[in-house]
Write a structure and sequence with these properties.
The complex is a heterodimer of chains A (127) and B (482).
Chain A: H1 2-21, H2 32-45, H3 48-69, H4 78-89, H5 94-119
Chain B: E1 2-5, E2 8-11, H1 15-26, E3 31-35, H2 50-56, E4 63-64, E5 71-73, H3 95-105, H4 112-127, H5 137-149, E6 153-155, E7 160-164, E8 170-174, H6 181-187, E9 191-194, E10 196-204, E11 207-216, E12 222-228, E13 231-234, H7 240-247, E14 259-260, E15 263-269, E16 284-286, E17 293-297, H8 302-307, H9 316-321, E18 326-333, E19 340-342, E20 351-353, H10 358-377, E21 382-384, H11 402-405, E22 413-415, E23 418-419, E24 445-447, H12 462-480
Parallel strand pairs in B: 1-12, 2-3, 2-13, 3-9, 5-22, 13-24
Antiparallel strand pairs in B: 4-5, 6-16, 7-8, 10-11, 11-12, 14-23, 15-18, 15-21, 16-17, 17-18, 19-20
Helix pairs in contact in B: 1-6, 1-12, 4-12, 5-10
The chains are: A mainly alpha (127), B alpha/beta (482).
Bound molecules: flavin-adenine dinucleotide (FAD).
């Protein structure tokens, strides 16, 4: 499952960060790969029920995006990907909403964690 | 299979396990404490960062209940348990709460005055204090908002130690278990094995015989262990303790009543800079609506603020560039929902089902509406909606009817306070352990952690856990020594 899921995570992170940063594309942007790698790591360290579920749903999301944009999610342009994410975000199905929430919230948190560490390694209160 | 033997086995080294092993070792017992996580010093990572989550949180901090509203919960997995990652806010619960526990759960020898004496001892032994250098700008702002509204609020004491530096500044250190009880416990003779996870306990009738465990070495190798003991103290926390017991076939009333303090956060913007991470977590809380509702300020570094601003925030990037003007705030409620902890075949992690009751959702809605009132009274110009599709608000009246209209399908609820999965007392219909933590159904097994709190303490729980465990273990020592 791992090699198949990573490209989907990469495009999910790309989509989320484009929306987050108000950009059309992220070439040259720092920490995008690091963010995707960390989300992958997080998925692998979740409790099995959620981790496996989330990996499965990530693949299903990629495949079912064909119905909306004629191609898997990871092969669509940014506008198409954003439409797919938005549809799941507004879905009546809780699992779909949890899925988008995970990528949006964790993607944002992880990205800004890297930015903060690089740009402002100012003291948090020690301990 | 490798073997370890001891008189007393303590499973888990959080506040419950650390207190248990310290008192028992100091009383002369031969104690082995096993901890699934590793030993990291309290300042080995910065608080509330990704690095800390990966190092000290169970599952990197991504664990959730299943229910009408899924609640993300955090557990520590390291020597010292969640005391190593928490804000160390310290409270005594209300005397009425303790009195209700005594009456409703039929807890023997549970006099409020005796318990208050125990609280005082804990405060002295671990060290609780307010900030000698005064409150942070965010706390001062929060206090100002509460004062404008005429609400009772105060700076909360913490398990924290401050000392002056030669340059005249302040050095501060969290009084977590690795800074306090763990060194004391080790000095008194406790043997500590880290990277050891207890899977199940083997019984003969009512008597626990040995624990089956697995050691993971630093380089990832696994080794099966059999740990023999005469007496067993399970202190693995409110979720893991019932998991270990259920896996071991002890099921009656175990993990059926897990309770929590559900919490929702939002971010707000102020005209003046008020956020400075060097101050750490702002420690001011509104007391006016306790124990049902607690309002407070949260850690507000950029990643946390960014996470609590949804996609509808206009010009989010520009706003984040002015992060010193942004802060995160929370509402936590004393939830009444009772969850169930169940092992799953094959999987290591349990299934935790938990309902957030309509009355708890109402309280969360009421809390959010009051919190917005407070931050606007403190001068906020914008409150960023915690709802997935919620617009930024600029006046508190926008949330006046939230108690009735909270969109439960759009909220992110989390918790850091879990307890009551094995309530203590003599009422056999409700209590799995007796008035001092012994499992009713077994002769040599005691539970000493957050699980034994009968219900929500309505305040940050660590002080109450330490106090109850201290009381219970002292009774054990009195009964088992000459
Ligand atoms: C982020 C955060 C902030 C918090 N802030 C505050 C606060 O400001 N004030 C406050 O009062 N409370 C706070 N709390 C809550 C408080 O930290 C907990 O209530 C308290 O630590 C619970 O103590 P415990 O001994 O029951 O369990 P834990 O602290 O959870 O310790 C249990 C230990 O047992 C180990 N363990 C579990 N299963 C096994 C096993 N099978 N084998 C071996 N070892 C095992 C775990 O790894 C863990 O180290 C906070 C909690 C968190 C997560």
């Amino acid at each position: 499952m791992r090699p198949r899921v990573r490209p989907v995570i990469d495009s999910l992170v790309d989509t989320v960060l484009c929306a987050e940063l108000g950009r059309e594309e992220l070439s040259g942007e720092r920490f995008v790969d690091e963010t995707a790698a960390m989300l992958h790591h997080k998925l692998e360290h979740m409790p099995e029920l959620f981790g496996l579920g989330m990996l499965g749903v990530t693949l299903a999301f990629d495949t079912t995006a064909r119905a909306r944009g004629g191609r898997p999610f990871r092969k669509q342009d940014l506008a198409g990907r954003q439409r797919c994410l938005d549809a799941w975000k507004r879905s009546p199905i809780g699992l779909f909403r949890s899925f988008t929430q995970f990528y949006e919230k964790m993607g944002t948190f992880v990205y800004y964690s890297h930015v903060e560490e690089a740009d402002a390694p100012h003291g948090h209160e020690v301990s | 299979m490798a073997r370890l033997d001891c008189d007393v086995l303590v499973v888990g080294s959080g506040p419950g396990g650390a207190m248990t092993s310290t008192l028992l070792s100091e009383a002369g017992f031969d104690v082995l404490m096993v901890e699934e996580g590793r030993h990291h010093s309290v300042d080995s990572s910065k608080s509330y960062t990704l690095e800390e989550m990966n190092q000290k949180y169970r599952n990197g901090g991504l664990t959730s209940t299943l229910g009408n509203v899924n609640v993300t919960y955090i557990e520590g997995k390291c020597v010292g348990g969640a005391s190593e990652i928490n804000a160390a806010l310290y409270h005594r619960p209300l005397a009425e709460t303790l009195e209700t526990w005594r009456r409703d759960f039929q807890i023997d020898d549970f006099e409020v005055q005796d318990l208050m004496d125990q609280f005082e001892t804990i405060e002295g032994e671990l060290g609780v204090s307010t900030r000698p250098m005064g409150e942070s700008p965010a706390s001062q702002l929060f206090a100002r908002g509460a004062e404008t509204l005429g609400w009772k609020s105060r700076e909360i004491q913490r398990f924290w130690k401050y000392s002056k530096t030669p340059e005249g500044g302040w050095r501060s250190r969290r009084q977590s278990m690795t800074e306090t009880l763990i060194p004391r416990s080790l000095a008194a003779g406790t043997r500590l094995e880290t990277g050891v996870r207890v899977h199940r306990i083997h019984f003969q009738g009512e008597h626990a015989l040995y624990a089956e465990a697995e050691r993971t070495t630093e380089d990832g190798r696994k080794q099966r262990l059999r740990i023999g003991f005469n007496k067993l103290f399970v202190c693995a926390g409110a979720v893991q303790t019932p998991l270990v017991l259920r896996r071991s076939g002890v099921t009656h009333g175990v993990g059926d009543t897990l309770q929590m303090h559900p919490m929702i956060r939002f971010a707000a913007r102020f005209p003046e800079p008020m956020n400075d991470p060097t101050w750490g977590v702002p420690v001011h809380q509104v007391e006016q609506f306790k124990p049902a509702i607690t309002l407070g300020c949260s850690h507000s570094s950029i990643p946390h603020v960014a996470m609590w601003m949804n996609r509808l925030v206009p010009d989010k990037v520009a706003r984040l560039e002015e992060w010193p003007h942004l802060g995160v705030f929370y509402v936590a409620v004393a939830g009444k929902g009772m969850g169930k902890v169940r092992p799953l075949p094959v999987f290591k992690h349990p299934l935790v089902r938990h309902p957030v009751l309509p009355e708890d959702l109402n309280l969360l809605g009421e809390g959010l509406s009051r919190l917005a009132e407070l931050v606007f009274a403190a001068g906020a110009t914008e409150v960023y909606s915690p709802f997935e599709h919620g617009e930024t608000i600029t006046h508190p009246s926008a949330w006046d009817d939230l108690p009735q209209t909270l969109p439960s399908d759009q909220i992110s609820v989390s918790t850091i306070h879990l307890f009551s999965s094995l309530p203590m007392g003599e009422d056999l219909a409700r209590c799995t352990v007796d008035s001092h933590g012994k499992l009713h159904s077994k002769s040599n097994v005691w539970i000493q952690d957050a699980s034994v709190l009968p219900t929500s303490p309505g305040v940050n729980p660590q002080g109450t856990i330490l106090t109850l465990v201290r009381r219970n273990v002292q009774r054990f020592i009195d009964q088992h020594t000459g």
